[in-house]
Fold this sequence. Notes:
By secondary structure, the chain is mainly beta.
Amino acid sequence: MHRVPTRPSSRGLAALAALVLPLALVACGSEEPDSGADGAQEPVAIEITVEDGAITPKGDRIEVGVGDEVVFTVTSDVAGSVHVHSTPEVAFDYTEGTTEETLTFERPGVVEVEGHDPDQLIVQLEVS
Length: 128
């Protein structure tokens, strides 16, 4: 016996579309990093602690996008400064307690962030 192919009903097509469409949307999804409600990139947060003459972190490498905001939050038991070896170079002072500084980087490359009391590499920002 020879079977005659049939066309799917409109109900069958609707059911198929209901199954396939969500999968297609997931497959075509963006791999962009999460952004805030207004579409802006969330800032990169870097927590620095200065306590009893020691600074943490100690040389961690952190990826940052060109133009992304980087928020440095320094919690310290003494006043001091952080030096950012970017182009142009930047330094910011912090006080005893908590200090916050926001920077952006417009040139790709590795940017070293260090303290000088004690003299130590805090983080390396890999700007790309």
